[in-house]
Amino acid sequence: MIKGFEIGLFEIKSFDKEARKQFREEWSKMTDGEKLEYANKMMKNEEDNSVSIEDINSFCEEWWMKSSGEKLIFVDELNMVFENKIYKY
Fold first, then answer.
1. Percentage of residues of the chain with pLDDT beyond 70
2. Taking a C-beta distance cutoff of 8 angstroms, is the pair 52, 43 a contact?
3. Domain assignments of the chain as residue spans, ordered by start
4. pLDDT tens, position by position, 24-83
């Protein structure tokens, strides 16, 4: 889950060593509230503006509470969605 605010989630996009180092320094100085605000801002910059860090954490918590059978059903349904999208093109 994202609650740990590991920086790897956001620094992947930069190949500049100095920029990554500077980001790590800035990140380490941020409060958890600032990190959450930054993370949500980064999520909104992606294609789907409806996802937040809280949404991801909620999904993860629900996922871990599911039985193995429920997880398998979910994965099978998701695979069918992907297959249908691929074959439409």
1. 72
2. yes
3. 2-88
4. 888 889 988 888 888 878 777 666 566 777 888 888 899 999 999 999 999 999 888 888
b/e 40-55 (16+ beta carbons within 10 angstroms → b):
eeebeeeeeeeeebee
Cβ within 8 Å of residue 51, ≥6 positions away: 43
- The whole-angstrom separation of Cα 39 and Cα 32 is 10
Q: Is the dihedral of CA 70, 85, 50, 57 positive or negative?
A: positive
